[in-house]
Amino acid sequence: xxxxxxxxxxxxxxxxxxxxxxxxxxxxxxxxxxxxxxxxxxxxxxxxxxxxxxxxxxxxxxxxxxxxxxxxxxxxxxxxxxxxxxxxxxxxxxxxxxxxxxxxxxxxxxxxxxxxxxxxxxxxxxxxxxxxxxxxxxxxxxxxxxxxxxxxxxxxxxxxxxxxxxxxxxxxxxxxxxxxxxxxxxxxxxxxxxxxxxxxxxxxxxxxxxxxxxxxxxxxxxxxxxxx
Length: 228
Fold this sequence. Notes:
The chain has 228 residues and is an alpha/beta fold. The chain has one domain: LmbE-like (Rossmann fold), CATH 3.40.50.10320. It is 31% helix and 23% strand. Helix 1 runs antiparallel to helix 5 (169-182) and helix 3 crosses helix 4 (118-132). The two termini are 15 Å apart.
């Protein structure tokens, strides 16, 4: 079941891209959406870990399961999370994405999906800047809509997001398989326990632009969705 406030999207033959910071982000936050729409042409790019041979191998195996093409960058991903020059992040995205117009580009939220990973936030800001400057042509942009109450609980979908997709059990099972069997995260890992059964997005069309000056929404406690 899908709650839809955004404009309708015709998936058949649509060029769609997913731009993420790390291999596995594409599956965690949007893998169900990709699997639900094999009729679209999916391209996935990740900005980090190209030189990590094991993670790179797993990323391309994941793309096979998702029915997507893709490529990897090798931006710094150290534990210190030192901020990067946003222009370098933009240039990396521009180099990795095929030079064509996209019906839809999906990326991280402005404040990430949990507390806190700087690369997620930088990736979102870079995609917005590329689209605003028309270095990236995308009719629509969706941002992952998840929050963790400032680290109080595992990431959950934002209940007032523009697009909310409750995944069928078989689609969620395929997504969970990629997270655990392809990427190798154990059942008790953050990634496996987080794997959302509901995917949610903030949606921006040509006429609805993303404002980088928006303030972060107030986090809400809601124990009713603790199992998601």
